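Box S2. Input/output pair 1.
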Amino acid sequence: HERDAAVLRQLKKQKAAADLVQTINSFLTSDRQTRVVAADGEAWLNLPDGNARRLDDLLSSGLQTRWEQASAELTQLESAQRELETVQRSLAAAPKEDAIKGIADELKTATSEITDLQQQLNRLDRDLATVEFECGELDKQITTLNRQHLDERVKTNEHARIAALVTRTQNTMREFLKQSSARKIQHLSELVTSSFRFLLHKQSLLERVIIDPDSFRITLIDPAGHQLPKDQLSEGEKQIFAISVLWGLSKASARPLPAIIDTPMGRLDAEHRKQLVERYFPHASHQVIVLSTDTEIERGYFQLLQPHIARAYHLTYDEQSRSTQPEEGYFWEAEATTEVAV
C-alpha cells in the first residue's frame, strides 16, 4: 500500500494528467485486492462487469499505453522547464533600461555629430572644387598674360623674336618630352643633331646635341668633346639651330604635320640661305608654306625650289580698300610679302 501511494505522489509531482492518475489509482487498488484474495486462497474480486473489463484492458495493453503517454508528457514538461530556465537566465542577464539609457543617448549624440561632420565635409569638398577651378582659371590668365608680355617683347627687336622662338620651341619640346621615355629623348637628340649638321655649312662646328631628360636643357658639344656655348654661335647659326630643333621634333612625332615658315632668311648669310633652300624647304614636311619677301626668295632660289612648288602667290595691298588681296604668281619687282606653297 505504501508503494502504491509513493507511485501516485510521484505522478502528481510530475504533474501527470488527472485521468491518468485516477486510472492508475484504480488499477493499483484492484491489484491490491487481487493480491489479498490470492493470499487468502480466494479468487473473488466482486467487481462489476464494466470494471472487470476495464481492468482486463489495463492489464493487457491500456496500462502500457498510459505509461508511455505519461513518459512523453513528462519529457515535454522537462523540455519546457529547461526553456523557461533559459529565458529566465537571459532576462536576468539583460541590462536594465536605466543602465543603457546613457549609452543610447551617447550613441544618438555621436550619430548626430557624424551627420553634421559629413555635411561639413561635403561643403568643404564643394568649396575645394570651386577653389581648384578658380586656380585653374587664374593659371590660364597668367599663362595668357605671360604670352602677351612675351609677344610685346618680341615686337621690339629681331633678337627678341629669335629668343621667343627658342623659348616656345623649348616649351613645345618640354611638353613632348614629358610623354617620352629616355630612349625617345636620346632619339630626339640624335634627330636634332643630324638636322643641325645637315643645315650647317660649318661641318666642323658641332659634334652632337645633348638634351637633359630632367631639365630639358640643350647642350652643344664640339668635335673635341667640349661644351659649345650658344652665345658663340652667330645670329644665323642660332636661327639654323632653332629650325633644326623644330625639324627634329617634327621627325620624332612621326606624324605628317604641315610646316609654316615666316621670313626664314632675314638674318642668314648667303651660304646658310642656300642650305635652307636646297636641304630644308623641300624636305621639311609633306606640306610647307614659306612666307617670305622677294629679297629672301629671289630668282635663283625660286628656280631651285621650282620642282617642289605646287602653287605660288603674291599678296598685294590696296590702299583704297585697306585690304590685302592674294594673286597667283610670284613676281620680283613689287616689294610685297609673298606666300609660297611647297
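Box S3. Input/output pair 2.
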Amino acid sequence: MGVIIMLLSHLSQEALLSKQATFQPSKNTIVEATRLVNQLDFTDQNATLISYHGWQAEKVLATEVIYRKWLVLHKVYNQEIKLAPNKQLDEYWHFHILDTRKYMQDCNLVFGSYLHHYPYFGLTDAETAEDLHNAFQRTRDLFIKHFGHDLIGVSNRCSSTSCR
C-alpha cells in the first residue's frame, strides 16, 4: 500500500511539473496579476521592518519588489505548483502574514482565497527536502522566465528557506 501511495505522489508531482512546463501564461495574465499585486500597500510593514527590526531601507524596498513578483507568480500559476522563497523573502512574507486582517484582505484581492504558508516544507524528511529544493529551483526558473533575473542575488544568496 505504501508503495502505491509513493507512486501516486510521484506521479502527482510529475503531473505538476509537466503542467508547469507546458503552461505558458499570456502577457495579459502577467499584466493583470501585476496590476492586482501592485494595489497592495506595504508602507506600514516596511516601516515596522526598518524601525523595529533593524532592516535597512534599501533592503526593505528591494525585498518588497521581489515579494510582489513572487506573489505575481502565485497568481499566474494559480497556486497549483509549489513555489519556495529564499530566506529573506520568507521573512518578509512572515511580516505580511502577521498583520492577519490585512493579509487576508490582500489574499482575497489578489487570489480570491488565502495563500497558506507551510513553514515545515522541506524540514521533515529527505523527500520533502528534495521537494523544497525542486520548488526553489522552479521559483528561480520562473523569475528568470518572467522577470529576466534570478531570485538569488537579488535578496540574498541563501538557496532557500532551508538555510535557517
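Caption for Box S3: Confidence is low (pLDDT under 50) at residues 1-20, 155-164. Residues 26-163 form one domain.
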